[in-house]
Amino acid sequence: MGEWQGASCGHAPGNAFYAGNDRGPVYVGRAHHKCDLLPGKVCRGKAYFPYGGEEITKIDYEVLVGSNYSWVGHHPSAPLPGNVVHGGHTSSGETLYVAKVSRDGVDVVGKVHLSHGRAYLPFDGKEHGYENYNILVKN
After folding, report:
1. pLDDT digits over 106-119, tens only?
2. Residue 104 confidence class, pLDDT cut points 50, 70, 90
3. Is the torsion defined by CA of 24, 28, 29, 35 positive or negative?
4. Where are the domains positioned within the chain?
5. Burial (0-12, 13-18, 19+ Cβ within 10 Å), 81
6. Which residues pair with 40 in a beta bridge?
7. pLDDT tens-digit profile of 27-69?
8. Is the Cβ–Cβ distance between 6 and 62 less than 8 Å?
């Protein structure tokens, strides 16, 4: 669920879904890394993704487009909303969803990894885990 459009070099299409603010607009992105398709953020001229304890950047990625989305509070012990946006997958086939947390006054977008019982978000060069986060749904 969700429509994605290819982009690169920190750019986002004109109809990209606005996910928040980090000294400028934040958009939802996703990119391939080591056989995973990772959800993350596009902002400040780069695309950032959480992986293996690190914040990684990618030049080529996809951006979520459209405006018919919203964020709802979620905890990994709760059932997923029926209209949750699929943001990617692991190499083993587990679906990854799109998460958002506000941290130090900025909106950070990353992945929900249900088998780990948390969301992981890229921030300040590292991957940070959260048990409480917002999850992206299609309206």
Report:
1. 999 999 999 999 99
2. confident
3. positive
4. 3-138
5. middle
6. 29
7. 999 999 999 999 999 998 899 999 999 999 999 999 999 999 9
8. yes
Question: Tokens for 49?
Answer: 């993704």
Nearest-angstrom CA–CA distance, 107 and 123 = 10
> How do residues 61-73 score in pLDDT, each as one tens digit?
999 999 999 999 9
Amino acid (1-letter code) at residue 137:
V
Q: What is the pTM of this model?
A: 0.94
Place of tokens 């018919």: 68
| Type of residue numbered 39 | P
Q: CA geometry: angle at 138 spanning 134 and 139, to 5°?
A: 105
Task: Give Rg (Cα) of the chain.
Answer: 13
CA angle 40, 2, 45 (to 5 degrees): 35
Contact predicate 66/17, CB 8 Å? yes
- Of 89, 34, 42, residue with least CA distance to 61: 42
Distances (CA, A) of 22 to 5, 25, 74, 96, 107: 22, 6, 22, 23, 6
Alpha carbon distance 91, 74 (integer Å): 24
